[in-house]
Structures are given as structure tokens and as C-alpha cells.
Amino acid sequence: MLVLRSSLTRALASRTLAPQVCSPFATGPRQYDGTLYEFRTYYLKPSKMNEFLENFKKNVHLRTAHSELVGYWSAEFGGRMNKVFHIWKYDNFAHRTEVRKALAKDKEWQEQFLIPNLALIDKQESEITYLVPWCKLEKPSKEVHVLWWNESADSRAAGRHKSHEDPRVVAAVRESVNYLVSQQNMLLIPTSFSPLK
């Protein structure tokens, strides 16, 4: 189980608002840094969620033949329900473009997965992200995404409760909350075919 936290933060600097960096994934003008990650979210028709996931599981090999799947999850709660969230790794923008072109020409991918499943998707979102330099999974402008792994929803709740009793955490939250513009959390459950659990 993962929790995705997406936050928009700001800091005062010479009377102007400037971004504040604090997470492993970030968006921003880093196109020359090489490796990038695409966060994709598909909002599915409620009655079609299981059908979509089964179709993807059956055909995931067709898609991973073109680029690396970092992880694939369904959202348990947090915002709109009946959505899947997945992360794809690319060497650079040219690589992503090559992959998109190859997928458009891949008849097996088109016929076995894409065409049958288009009607199951209500909406799609895509965002390019980069890893901050100190993160092992390999820098941000405004939006910040943090993936936290937890054993279960109960262990997450216990950890949050314990941290709220720590005066250092309470002080840090009180100090940083003034810079928070928006925040969204999603509890993500890994699919059986997700490389990252």
C-alpha cells in the first residue's frame, strides 16, 4: 500500500512567491536532466474498473515491451474513486516520443488493449516528473509528489498518531503549514502486476 501526497507549497523570497522543495518526485523545468517519470491517472467508469484491470493485467507485457513500468495502483480512497495511477520511466523526452510512436504502430497493443478499453475510461491525466537529486528511485517547481509505503492503512494511522505526539514534528508542521497552498492524499493499492509494491 502506498500513499501519494501531492502538495503545492510556496515560500516568501524578496516579496515574491518562490517554490519550496521537499520530496522525491517533482515537476519543473528539468528536461535536460535525462531520466523522467510519467505519472498517469485513468478515471474509469465505476462498473468497468475490474474489467479494465483484468484487461491490463492480461496485456501488460505488450506495454512493457516499449518502456519500463515503475508501478501500477488502484486508488482505495482520496479524491474521486474508480481510478488507477501508474508510473512509467523514460530515458528522456525523445525516448518518450519514440515509445508513444511505437505504441501507435503496435497493432497487437492497439487491438488487444487500447481499442477495447477506451470506452471504459472517463478521463486521463498525465504529468511529467523527475526525481530529486538525493532520492534513490532516481526538482521541483511547484507541485510535489511523495510516495510513502505503509504495511497497511492501520499502520499508517498508527505512524501518523505517533508522529503527532512528537514535538519536533508538531513544530515543523506548524511552521510549514503557512506555505501550503493545497494538498491531496490518495491511498494506493498495488495491482498484482505492479513492479513497485
From TrEMBL:
Lineage: Eukaryota, Metazoa, Chordata, Craniata, Vertebrata
GO biological process, one term: mitophagy
GO CC term (a single one): mitochondrion
Record-given protein name: Protein NipSnap homolog 3A isoform X2
Domain NIPSNAP residues, every copy: 37-136, 141-195
A Pfam family this chain is assigned to: NIPSNAP
Similarity comment text for this entry: Belongs to the NipSnap family.
Organism field: Sapajus apella
SUPFAM superfamilies to which the protein is assigned, alphabetical: Dimeric alpha+beta barrel (SSF54909)
